Amino acid sequence: HHYNLLLLLLLLLLLLLLLLLLLLLLLLLLLLLLLLLLLLHHHHHHFLLLLLLLLLLLLLLLLNEDSSSSSSSSSSCSSSGSSCSSSGSSGSSSNSSSK
């Protein structure tokens, strides 16, 4: 029973992390929209360029974290074939994307 509880807690943590990532992406999109509005109304180019650079850095960090987490999950999947076969949908989607 304790093992099942641990699995449920891990799944909940993963879902929370995914939700946090989605919220961060939404916040970044909102910031980009605000920047576009500022560009339309005002002409403070240096300030906006700095903000855009910061946003790009944040996006790059998020992408790096995403790629590292996905690569680690794929490596664990390849090391243990049973877990990989249990989640065939993700495998087929990655196969179609690679083609």
Automatic annotation (TrEMBL):
<feature type="transmembrane region" description="Helical">
    <location>
        <begin position="6"/>
        <end position="39"/>
    </location>
</feature>
<feature type="transmembrane region" description="Helical">
    <location>
        <begin position="46"/>
        <end position="63"/>
    </location>
</feature>
<feature type="region of interest" description="Disordered">
    <location>
        <begin position="67"/>
        <end position="99"/>
    </location>
</feature>
<keyword id="KW-1133">Transmembrane helix</keyword>
<keyword id="KW-0812">Transmembrane</keyword>
<keyword id="KW-0472">Membrane</keyword>
<protein>
    <submittedName>
        <fullName>Uncharacterized protein</fullName>
    </submittedName>
</protein>
